[in-house]
Amino acid sequence: MSAVPVAPHPASAESVPPDQRFALLLTPPPPRTGWRVVPARVTAMCVVELQKLRHDRTEIYTRAVQPALWLLIFGVTFSRIHAIPTGGVPYLDFLAPGIIAQSAMFIAIFYGIMIIWERDSGVLTKLMVTPTPRTALVTGKAFAAGVKAVIQAAVVIVIAALIGVGMTWNPLRLLGVVVVVLLASAFFSCLSMSIAGIVLTRDRLMGIGQAITMPLFFASNALYPVALMPGWLQAVSRVNPLSYQVDALRGLLIGTQAHLGLDLAVLAFAALAGIVAAGSLLGRLAR
Amino acid sequence: MTTQTAPALNCTGLSYSFGDAKVVDGLDLLVGQGEVFGLLGPNGAGKTTTMRAITTLLPVPPGVIEVFGHDAARQKMAVRRLLGYVPQQLSADASLTGRENVQLFARVFDVPRRQRAARVSQALDAVGLGDVAHRLAATYSGGMVRRLELAQALVSAPRLMILDEPTIGLDPIARDSVWERITEIRVAAGMTVLVTTHSMDEADQRCDRLALMHLGRLRALGTPAQLKNELVAHRRESGETGLPPPSLEDVFRHHSGAGLNDPGSGSDEGKGAFRDVRRTRRTASRLG
Q1: Residue among B57, B83, B66, B70 nearest B12 (CA)
Q2: Are B88 and B278 in contact (CB under 8 A)?
Q3: Which residues of chain A does B34 touch, with a Cβ-Cβ cutoff of 8 Å?
Q4: Which strands make up the sheet holding B70-71, listed edge to edge?
Q5: Do B109 and A130 touch (CB under 8 A)?
Q6: Residue of A133, A115, A123, A125 whose CA lies nearest to A189
Q7: Contact in structure between B154 and B124 (CB atoms under 8 Å)
Q8: How many CA atoms are closer than 13 Å to the CA of A172, on its beta-carbon side?
Q9: What is the C-alpha to C-alpha distance for residues A180 and A186, in angstroms, rounded to an integer?
Q10: Which of A73, B18, B44, B108 has the fewest beta carbons under 10 Å from its own?
Q11: pLDDT digit string (tens) for B253-278?
Q12: Residues contacting residue A157 through CB under 8 Å, at least 6 positions apart
């Protein structure tokens, strides 16, 4: 055991009256406990994400290019070919929800890179020393990714509307779109954060991110109906959360027959499982 | 023992290994309330691992670390509420304003909404950034970023401020400015400060007591004057005469210099050593 401490520095606070300029900094804030912790942390992380987007909107514009190209080139061309049976729905209309889901997924799937950047810059370490349980921190980050994805989805919806995709403007259905995009983005960002917790470096995560995004996209119903896929791909599509996201978005935006209850249940379960997995792996990033 | 009377930090037999490399080996530390306590040691001595264990970032067994009487293994949230932490890296978010950076920490420490704006302003004023709080942190100088990080840590009224090389890479004026703020706030708030530094001048001038670590173990402990006097006594016993009075740097060399290049020591070859050096250089380079 180290020796008994000497008397504190002569300038210590016990002997000096507190400075009124710092009056509020002398009392710790009352701790928030129980169920209120997670919503508070989610709000904090989402606010930060919105503040960053307010200062720099470049990412919103640059990220809009790729979905715009999918709709304008791929979508318009395949509409003319009439090669994909879509049950009477114009192909561009069929494709638009798939591209919204894809662009939201792309944002979320690379969120782990941001976590590794935050680890390297000390931001994550500092957040992990706050009274925030790991799962609450991951949930906050997951929904912050969701906020970004919702804004991206809104941009793609506007582009789709401009090129003539017939979508609903029913506020309740649009609210449903927000919920679906949030849940799916929460899952994909947690998947990314979990991989970050395993591979620990940006380069490895970039490689894995690129390796899984296109298979996830092609093994879903985003570009074509599941019925057209070979059997093995249909099996992959059934366990791919992106398929459930696209199905829900199609039902909500285009009005096709969807299994909204199942879609939401699968996405909620996937998000929850993702949060648990990422929360348990987050500590590895701090070591 | 209550929170009011318990030592700020009581560390008993802390050991930590990365794989086969033991980076902290049976460390005992007792830091009294209101002290400025310096943790010194060469790269790979185990300082950062010790800091990480104290800040609950690394898992430790129950009963090893207590912060104001709260067990760091069993009462993590309670411990974290007592801590203010400024890591070695420049950890302020450059894409947010100074105020937004502090607001984030006010939110995650549950500062009530009605009090948040005023508390954030006080924290920014306390570090002299009130007038530039609206600017993006990306536009701040190195010293300003460090002060912003102090404001982030201060907004929750911590009782133990942990500073991991707070002045690394700063010019002497910025360094003084950062320490002046730390001292001013410590005086007002009665905080305990635990700091690591490689600057022996800083340790000599600013710390009440020092612990010198090497190869994961505590090698010396005391006030700067005590450590220097011990070296004088050692020199006298070993017949070294005609030397000028020792500086803290001499004390540092005496306790750790002999083992710095020991290839069998394992410490500098430890898992975290390369990362620590890279982080230090990155921070210094970002501060310009």
Answers
A1: B66
A2: no
A3: 8-9, 12-14
A4: B21-31, B9-18, B65-67, B70-71
A5: yes
A6: A115
A7: no
A8: 0
A9: 10
A10: A73
A11: 998 875 444 444 444 444 455 666 66
A12: A96, A100, A167, A177, A253
Q: What is the CA radius of gyration of chain B?
A: 19
Looking at the whole model, is its pTM more than 0.90? no
- In chain B, what is the greatest distance between 2 CA atoms, to the nearest angstrom? 67
Distance in Å, alpha carbon of A130 to nearest chain B alpha carbon: 6
Mean pLDDT by 10 residues, chain B (288 residues): 81 92 93 95 90 93 96 96 92 95 97 95 93 96 92 95 88 86 84 93 94 93 95 89 88 74 43 59 60
Matching residue, tokens 């902290």: B24
CA A147 to CA A78: how far, in whole Å?
31
Coil, helix or strand at residue B44: coil
Nearest Cα to B198, choosing from B229, B228, B167, B220? B167
Residue A255 region by backbone torsions, left for phi larger than 0, else alpha for psi between -120 and 50, else beta = left
Whether A13 and B105 lie within 8 Å, measured CB to CB = no
Which residues from B are below 8 Å from A120, CB to CB? 89, 279, 282
Q: How far apart are CA B123 and CA B130, in angstroms?
A: 8
- The reply to whether residue B93 touches residue A125, judged by beta carbons under 8 angstroms, is no
Tens-digit pLDDT profile for chain A (287 aa)? 455 454 455 444 444 455 677 888 888 999 988 889 999 999 999 999 999 999 998 988 898 898 999 999 999 888 888 888 888 889 999 999 999 999 999 889 888 899 999 988 889 999 999 999 999 999 999 999 999 999 989 999 999 999 888 888 999 999 999 999 999 999 999 999 999 999 999 899 999 988 999 999 999 999 999 999 999 999 999 999 999 999 999 999 998 899 999 999 999 999 999 999 999 999 888 77
What is the rounded distance in angstroms from the CA atom of residue B192 to the CA atom of residue B83? Answer: 10
CB contact under 8 A, B157 and A26: yes
Residue A156 Cα distances to A68, A98, A167, A181, B117, angstroms: 7, 11, 12, 12, 36
- Could you tell me whether strands B36-40 and B192-196 are parallel, antiparallel, or unpaired per DSSP bridges? parallel
What does the block give as tokens for B123?
Answer: 């924290």
Domain ranges of chain A: 38-286
Alpha carbons A131 and B157: distance in angstroms, whole number: 13
CA distance A177 to chain B (A): 28
Instruction: Please give the domain boundaries of chain B with CATH numbers for all domains.
Output: 9-287 (3.40.50.300)
How many CA atoms lie within 13 Å of A267's alpha carbon, on the beta-carbon side?
30
Residue keyed to tokens 């320490």: B179
* Ramachandran assignment for B136, one of left (phi > 0), alpha (psi -120 to 50 degrees), beta (any other): beta
Calpha distance A53→B48 (Å, rounded): 34
Residue pair A34/A132 in contact by the 8 Å Cβ criterion: no
Which residue carries 């009439």 as its tokens? Answer: A82
CB contact at 8 A, B131 and A37: no
